[in-house]
Amino acid sequence: MEHCRCREIEGKLSHDHKGRAVSSVPGFSFVPGPVIVGAGPSGLATAACLKEKGVESVVLERSDCIASLWQRKTYDRLRLHLPRRFCELPLMGFPRDFPEYPDKGEFIEYLESYARRFGICPRFEETVEHAEYDALLGLWRVRSMSSKGEERGARTRTYLCRWLVVATGENAEAVVPEIEGMEGFGEVIKHTSLYRSGKEFEGKRVLVLGCGNSGMEVCLDLCNHNAMPSLVVRDTVHVLPREMLGWSTFGLSMWLLKWLPMHLVDRFLLLMSWLILGDTARFGLNRPKLGPLQLKNLNGKTPVLDVGTLAKIKSGAIKIRPGIRRLRHHSVEFADGRIERFDAIILATGYKSIVPHWLKEGKMFSEEDGLPRQPFPNGWKGGNGLYAVGFTKRGLLGASADARKIAEDIGREMARNPSLQQPSSSPLLIS
Ligand SMILES: Cc1cc2nc3c(=O)[nH]c(=O)nc-3n(C[C@H](O)[C@H](O)[C@H](O)COP(=O)(O)OP(=O)(O)OC[C@H]3O[C@@H](n4cnc5c(N)ncnc54)[C@H](O)[C@@H]3O)c2cc1C
């Protein structure tokens, strides 16, 4: 009985003249090429590299736009932290008239034209809820839920594909810490993903929790809008100037690493930072024992590239505070016993990957942190046609490298066996 239904479905599956997916069976689609989950920079880069190899893909995106992290979850003053040449996606550079550090609007504009140039049309408002390899079919079953107006609530779709590319990002979900007394605080508490500008905090005392690039920049933004920010620093942190000796710190580090071992480059960076910024420990920002590059290499912790926050800390416009013990009504009790009144708390506490919530495979991705178990540069490829792009903790540069490798790999496999794109080459069992 089951088998009859499968045969019936198999007969109805076809693909269009561009090789995209397709099925006349409601709720099912066979995709002759890869399915890419996520239309951020990583997903777009992979789709473009595949296209260059003549491979069409289907891109599924839970949001209603490409690069939703940038369009929906970042603050207005955001600029790329790294110079543009380290943030270009494969096959298409930034427009010549873009500045060295494009702002958020310019970066989104670039991504929009990138998608247009490579004819990438994601299926928006489709959240992938479950994906699992079907060993019997030799295909991935990818189930998505549509949240589009007319389809809301009712529409799930199952895609069957030979290749599945996970491009959902290291920043898929905001990390919101549990703090004692949160419910009784009685003032605004928001994650940076909901913070747009310091304008709404003018004249207010704001506590920013988390001293990474976002936390530091939000403090600066608050200062610029006449708010009174304090920054919680619980841990050690490397703050480096964004530029040294007329070079970007990142570019200079990359160049030096070609000639010198990492620990020597770290020493150089720390010396230059000390000369340019002074001893950050004097302002409450203690440095980790390990150098910035070694630390990044070991656990992915990114150094902060200073864009002016440190000067505000030095001048006292931004106050440094220790960890929080508990929240009280309209006030915060710190680890050192001090109690201060605040009008708002901004959680610059980062994001996490949630791949294991929907991808059921158990080998490639760690259940603990949602990242590939294999360290860089080997985390991009799993078994049975599974790939990961953008999980290297190396930003857009890492994502671009992954995208190229994935397209090479799939392109090679398809070239070796063109019949792989034919839906009829495998019996389709759909339950
Ligand atoms: C504030 C900030 C600034 C940064 N600045 C830089 C920089 O200057 N240079 C640099 O190299 N890197 C930077 N990064 C790091 C990194 O490059 C970016 O986070 C980049 O957006 C990563 O791209 P991505 O496509 O891997 O992930 P994302 O941009 O997060 O895209 C993933 C997409 O997948 C979608 N998605 C997630 N789950 C599902 C699902 N289940 N079903 C369907 N769709 C799903 C999401 O909606 C999202 O659109 C920055 C990161 C942040 C947070």
3D structure, described in words:
It is a single chain. With 431 residues, this protein is of the alpha/beta class. The protein has two domains: 2-172 and 353-420, FAD/NAD(P)-binding domain, CATH 3.50.50.60; 175-347, FAD/NAD(P)-binding domain, CATH 3.50.50.60. It contains eleven helices and 23 strands. The chain has helices spanning 2-12, 41-52, 68-72, 104-117, 213-224, 249-257, 262-277, 292-299, 309-315, 355-358, 395-416, and strands spanning 28-31, 35-37, 58-60, 126-134, 139-146, 156-161, 164-166, 173-174, 188-191, 205-209, 228-232, 239-241, 243-244, 247-248, 304-306, 319-321, 324-328, 331-334, 339-341, 344-347, 351-352, 359-360, 386-388. It has a five-stranded mixed sheet with strand order 1-6-5-4-22. Helix 2 packs parallel to helix 11 and helix 6 (249-257) packs antiparallel against helix 7 (262-277). The radius of gyration is 24 Å and the shape is globular. Flavin-adenine dinucleotide binds next to helix 2, helix 3, strand 4 and helix 11.
What layout of secondary structure does this protein have?
Blueprint: H1 2-12, E1 28-31, E2 35-37, H2 41-52, E3 58-60, H3 68-72, H4 104-117, E4 126-134, E5 139-146, E6 156-161, E7 164-166, E8 173-174, E9 188-191, E10 205-209, H5 213-224, E11 228-232, E12 239-241, E13 243-244, E14 247-248, H6 249-257, H7 262-277, H8 292-299, E15 304-306, H9 309-315, E16 319-321, E17 324-328, E18 331-334, E19 339-341, E20 344-347, E21 351-352, H10 355-358, E22 359-360, E23 386-388, H11 395-416
Parallel strand pairs: 1-6, 2-3, 2-7, 4-22, 7-23, 9-20, 10-11, 10-20, 11-16, 12-15
Antiparallel strand pairs: 4-5, 5-6, 8-21, 13-14, 17-18, 18-19
Helix pairs in contact: 2-11, 6-7
The structure holds flavin-adenine dinucleotide (FAD).
Flavin-adenine dinucleotide binds next to helix 2, helix 3, strand 4 and helix 11.
